[in-house]
Amino acid sequence: MIGFSVQKNAPWKKLIIHQKLTNKSMKKNMGSADRITRIVVAIIITFLYMINAISGTFLYVFLFVVAALVLTSSMSFSPLYSFFGISTRKKSVG
Q1: Tell me: the pLDDT tens digits for 7-40?
Q2: Residue 60 sits in which domain range?
Q3: What is the pLDDT of residues 53-91, one digit of tens each?
Q4: What is the C-alpha to C-alpha distance for residues 92 and 25, in angstroms, rounded to an integer?
Q5: CA distance linking residue 58 with residue 21, whole number of Å
Q6: Whole-prediction pTM value?
Q7: Phi and psi for 60 in degrees, rounded to 5?
Q8: How many domains does one find in the chain?
């Protein structure tokens, strides 16, 4: 018979606790207009890449910016907004 024991301070327990703590701090702080603007800017930069209007170092910088814009708008959360205490999300009535 194979047995196992769970350590009191197992690393996976710390990971679960960390995820629970970080999920509470990732409240949505981005409104619809902000999300749409970010998506439009990402589409424009992608279009410029496709027609070879940007290249070299600027290409990699802009592709990183596109990834950040799409990621933050898909989650409705901006870490910079959270850091500075900014929210473009409308307050719910009630």
Answers
A1: 566 555 555 555 555 555 678 889 999 999 999 9
A2: 28-84
A3: 999 999 999 999 999 999 999 999 999 988 888 888 887
A4: 19
A5: 36
A6: 0.66
A7: -70, -35
A8: 1
